[in-house]
């Protein structure tokens, strides 16, 4: 698949940062870790990866804006375009030696996500999508699951930790959803959860209190793979609000009714 110049820049940047993260992941016990907040850690690896991504992306497109987890927002000379970047989604997994984490890069144009890359460097799975060009994992075109029945479907979410205020709502979601489905998974990376919906590994995903960089790339991936993506309130701007629900089309209406009840 030959993508646009911007998509190729994104893939190249993700691979370069991924190489750095994989090297640090092999020496995870030696990483210097500082506490950034309850249950939210930042590592030398995280900061180094963001530096690589910033150099690659802004080096190639210096007029674009910049929004990322570990550095200050940059408005950009071009107000219509912005990189939205998470250098390491799944930091806690990374710190515990669990090979389930990813780099997430999205390109926003006039308030819409038009391209996205999610790179699972530990497994060498590169997910990418561009508006109108479909969704891909490495060299393979991907599609959302074709399952139609909730009872056969697997869903993913994040479980609030460390006393977060959205815990009661999530527990209520699970109480309604678990009896109606084949299972719910919590693997610790919202970006990969959405990539797994895009590739048909999960039928759906929902979560509250995410950041723009957690979900921006996943939006275009799921959409281009044939899935539906909305805010938990259908009228919300997902990137701004940080709440999302997505699924394949046959499941979406029933699934969303269970979560939104």
UniProtKB/TrEMBL annotation:
Q: Which CDD domains match?
A: IMPase
* Keyword terms, alphabetized: Hydrolase, Magnesium, Metal-binding
| Cofactor(s) the protein requires to work | Mg(2+)
- Show the InterPro entries listed in the entry: IMPase, Inositol_monoP_metal-BS, Inositol_monophosphatase-like, Inositol_monophosphatase_CS, Inositol_monophosphatase_SuhB
Q: Which Pfam families did the record assign?
A: Inositol_P
Residue sites binding Mg(2+) per the record: 69, 86, 88-89, 214
What top-level branch of life does the organism fall under?
Bacteria
Stated EC number for the protein is: 3.1.3.25
Question: Can you cite a GO biological process for this protein?
Answer: signal transduction
Record field: catalytic activity: a myo-inositol phosphate + H2O = myo-inositol + phosphate
Q: What are the protein's GO molecular function terms?
A: inositol monophosphate 1-phosphatase activity; metal ion binding
Q: Which PANTHER family match?
A: INOSITOL MONOPHOSPHATASE, INOSITOL-1-MONOPHOSPHATASE-RELATED
Q: Which family does it belong to?
A: Belongs to the inositol monophosphatase superfamily.
What name appears for this protein in its UniProt entry? Inositol-1-monophosphatase
- According to its UniProt entry, this protein's organism is Parasedimentitalea psychrophila
Lineage runs:
Bacteria, Pseudomonadati, Pseudomonadota, Alphaproteobacteria, Rhodobacterales
């Amino acid at each position: 698949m030959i993508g646009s110049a911007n998509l190729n820049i994104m893939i190249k940047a993700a691979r370069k940062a991924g190489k750095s993260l994989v090297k640090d992941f092999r020496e995870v016990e030696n990483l210097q870790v500082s506490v950034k907040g309850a249950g939210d850690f930042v590592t030398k690896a995280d900061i180094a990866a963001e530096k690589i991504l910033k150099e690659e992306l802004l080096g190639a497109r210096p007029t674009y804006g910049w929004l990322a987890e570990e550095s200050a927002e940059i408005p950009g000379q071009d107000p219509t375009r912005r990189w939205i970047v998470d250098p390491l989604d799944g930091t806690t997994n990374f710190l515990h030696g669990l090979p389930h984490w990813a780099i997430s890069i999205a390109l926003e144009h006039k308030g819409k996500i038009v391209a996205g890359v999610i790179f699972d460097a530990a497994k060498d799975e590169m997910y990418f999508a561009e508006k109108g060009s479909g969704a891909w994992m490495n060299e393979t075109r991907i599609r959302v699951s074709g399952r139609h029945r909730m009872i056969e479907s697997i869903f993913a979410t994040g479980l609030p930790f460390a006393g977060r205020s959205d815990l009661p709502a999530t527990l209520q979601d699970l109480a309604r959803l678990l009896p109606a489905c084949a299972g719910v998974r919590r693997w610790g990376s919202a970006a990969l959860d959405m990539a797994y919906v895009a590739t048909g590994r999960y039928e759906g995903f929902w979560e509250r209190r995410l950041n723009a960089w957690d979900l921006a790339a996943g939006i275009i991936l799921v959409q281009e793979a044939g899935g539906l993506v909305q805010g938990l309130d259908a009228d919300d701007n997902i990137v701004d609000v940080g709440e999302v629900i997505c699924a394949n089309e046959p499941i979406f209406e029933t699934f969303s009714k269970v979560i939104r009840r």
